[in-house]
Amino acid sequence: MKKNQFDTKLIHEGYKTSEYHGSLTPPLFHTSTYTFPTAQHGEQSFAGERDDFIYSRLGNPTVQILEERMAALEEGEVALAFGSGMAAVSATIFSLISTGDHILCSKGIYGCTYGFLEMLENKFGIEHNFCEMDTEEEIQNLIQENTKVIFIETPINPTMKVIDIEMVVEVAKKNNITVVVDNTFCSPYLQKPLTQGCDIVLHSATKYISGHGDVVAGIVVCKAKELADRMIPIRKDIGAIMSPFDAWLLLRGLKTLAVRMDRQCENAKKVVSFLQSHPMVKEVFYPGDFKSQNYFIASKQMKKGGGVFAFTIDGTKKDTQEFINHLEMIKIAVSLGDTETLVQHPATMTHAVVPKELREKMGITDNMLRMSVGLEAWEDIVADLQQALIKSNSNTVC
């Protein structure tokens, strides 16, 4: 049988109905522990001589189905599920570094990832630097003897700058450095960093993998089993695990990932086009815009432009916040990838932990907003933005 296409893997990979009494939907194994027929069997299981489930912090059948599906979708050897996106980030970095090591990061990263890196530096002497990553020379110049990891987001949250994954990988391999890509904004449907040479890809599965705003979870997919083997003891001992019910919800969400993202990408293009033509909008940042400076790289490594973009309002922080206060259908919330259209103010929300001076160097200004486009009719999204802009402009004039 030929290899299944991506859309088919979303629904079938990692699950055989014949192994679960013919159940069409993967069962929810809502149990904390598992029994052994004999003491000797239990001894063999704990010794690793049997591939059995022992305790749900160590493994669970429902979670395992999700992990196998995600590994197939990202084309990696092993996937590991975590209780949150930050648990996935933390376990990944912990597995790759030791005291005194150095991490090189893309210039923009999620606020909580920044906070975690600051904690590592303050408590354990693990330093980090930020890099534009526009050229190989620039990356090479910032690599130190103790650099162990290059950690990138692409597109970057929230500026939507796109990093050339293959270029970063080329430099990293010359220096024997592990490349980690946060692929949350794209999901494996739009971008597959492992096929472009990176070593580890991770997701806040809370976002597009779930797609319904009812799960907090993280996923890591490793290109090689050896990398996952280093991460498994960290997950076991820190306990940052995914619940079986959350895994079951993610399996359900994955089934519609392709159709959801197709709609969200199309909606995003329409909304971006409207905002670009509005006089109150200074600039729109969207990888799928052919006029964007990121378009060439994005078109090389992304299937489509995605459902998230950022834009700046022609005004102050107060004007920007007042604009989103006038929105009616669109919700003010910090997540993304949901069926609902969401908007947030990064400078005071997702990236509030980043010092103002560094935030501005990252391109996160007080008049920037990030929008995640949902599944509503694009005409209704545009209408809501339009009425809020009209009200904001009226208040400014007054």
Describe what this molecule looks like in 3D:
This is L-methionine gamma-lyase. It holds the Pfam family Cys_Met_Meta_PP. It catalyses: L-methionine + H2O = methanethiol + 2-oxobutanoate + NH4(+). The chain has 398 residues and is of the alpha/beta class. It folds into two domains: 249 residues, Type I PLP-dependent aspartate aminotransferase-like (Major domain) (Aspartate Aminotransferase, domain 2, 3-Layer(aba) Sandwich); 141 residues, Aspartate Aminotransferase, domain 1 (Alpha-Beta Complex). It is built from 15 helices and twelve strands. It has a seven-stranded mixed sheet, with helices on both faces. A five-stranded mixed sheet has the order 8-9-12-11-10. Strand 5, helix 8 and strand 6 form a beta-alpha-beta unit. Helix 11 packs parallel to helix 15. The longest helix has 20 residues. The N and C termini lie far apart (68 Å).
